[in-house]
Amino acid sequence: MSNEIENKLILTDQCRENLTSYTVQAFNKIHKIHRPVILDIGCGTGVPSIALLREIDDAFVVAVDQDEESLSWFRQKIDKLGFTERLKLIQASFFQTEKYQQKFDLILAEGILHIVGFQSGFLILKEMLENNGYMIIHDEKKDIQKKKNIFNLNNFEIIDCFELDRNIWWNDYFKCLEKSLSDLDDKQLFREEMNYIREFKKSPELFESVYFVLKKQVH
Ligand SMILES: C[S@@+](CC[C@H](N)C(=O)[O-])C[C@H]1O[C@@H](n2cnc3c(N)ncnc32)[C@H](O)[C@@H]1O
Hints:
Blueprint: H1 3-17, H2 20-27, E1 37-41, H3 47-55, E2 60-65, H4 68-81, E3 87-91, E4 104-110, H5 113-116, H6 118-127, E5 129-140, H7 144-153, E6 156-164, H8 166-182, H9 191-202, E7 209-216
Bound molecules: S-adenosylmethionine.
S-adenosylmethionine binds at residues 16, 42-44, 47-48, 65-67, 70, 93-94, 110-112, 115-116.
């Protein structure tokens, strides 16, 4: 991986880390599980996975993403942090479930279900969750009642639901990105991020999001 790409990933991770307190806030709503096995689906560069590994001493995380560059950066970070024994990285599409099929105590799905299709994605993940297991979903703030109906119909208890509004997204994420980019001479590699900032300023409502903390109930 080139130095330029590494510097880019360091910078975007730093801004993403400002949002991990919400992952931890969601996690703190669930009952303590002894030696939980956690799936982080669509893990990206692993910022939420690492937050959970720091938070839960005895957790084992299986992290899945289709993007090789994100995974290779994630791998470098966990080697440095010494989490190698508590984490398994798998390169796979969401739909290649045979590559990561097992039962999990907790499934973390941040920023992935709106990409793969909310309902069909949720139903796939449901099958991989232990009875009485938990799911934390971070998704677009859209069709909230429809999503809640899907959870109810599938016997999931909604333990908590909270929103990240436009102020949170600006103060915790986009302001950080804008500030970091303004310090750079060469912004070529950050075209996508600059585009996101422009889009956010134009339509901040599109970036608002919701966390759902769910429990799969036994029939
Ligand atoms: C918005 S990012 C979220 C990353 C991470 N969960 C986070 O919250 O920081 C979405 C991630 O989903 C991954 N992704 C998108 N479609 C996927 C698919 N069909 N299968 C596996 N991963 C996918 C992307 O590579 C990207 O890393």
